[in-house]
Amino acid sequence: MNSKLIAAAVAVAAVFSAPGAQAQAFINVLTGGTSGVYYPLGVAIGKIYGDKIPNVKTQVQATKASVENLILLQQGRGEIAFTLGDSLKAAWEGDEEAGFKSKLDKLRTIGAIYPNYIQIVATAESGIKTLADLKGKSLSVGAPKSGTELNSRAILAAAGMTYKDMGKVEYLPFAESVDLMKNRQLNATLQSAGLGVASLKDLSTSTDITVVSVPKATVDKIGPPFVSVMIPANTYTGQDKDVPTAAVVNYLVTSSAVSDDLAYQMTKLVYESLPELANSHAAGKEIKLETAATGSPVPLHPGAIRYYKEKGLIK
User: Fold this and answer.
1) Rounded CA separation 155/71 (Å)
2) pTM value?
């Protein structure tokens, strides 16, 4: 009997030590609210990883976006996350005002993706047409300490205003902001997202809106990582002209706890699956391999560096 038990134990050990047997890896994709752009792109990335990385299980987590995502990465509760560039810089520097109690030293960049457009949209009946018109009105600035909310502070400061100048400030995710505007309980919303974000498309098809411009002079006061861009005419129903605004580049970020091999595969599959990402959301069309390795305030992960060297983007 003993010899049979020993033989069985040896057989089990042989199976688990066989060259083909690998422990299953887990990838938690940290995104944002379900009505934003991060979420559909994250779902697409999760599917790509699940289909193409052997022995991996994926999960897509809806979050409050940039700031929460970076904190979760630092805590080891995610493997890849979406974030705005200014939030990433604040996390790396340990900017407490931005929501980071200490420097998040485990963060490592996978690559730059698409720019977030600062989209300030008001109901037509509110009479808001310029940034100055926001004074005394109600404005939703995004979830507290989210990337959008940090963008809101920066834009208002450059325009010579603070939250105290508003009639009321709501700290709400995109979909909830739109619901209040439809019900005439909110004048305007600032949403930092890719062009054609679902929440604002929904609003523009049911309510007359004004897309409020952020002049280049205002953007220049903030400086990098903000740049001056245009929201093209007809991005939203009723928007018949190009509207100037600010943009901030988004990044995909991981942590130093993720292995070089897994980070390499995650990077490679993002930038070699751009058609799939473009199909998941229009913002995916703006992701370019040529600019992926540029501009991050946080070091690239060694696995990402390996991929960019293969593609000739890093020497």
Assistant:
1) 24
2) 0.80
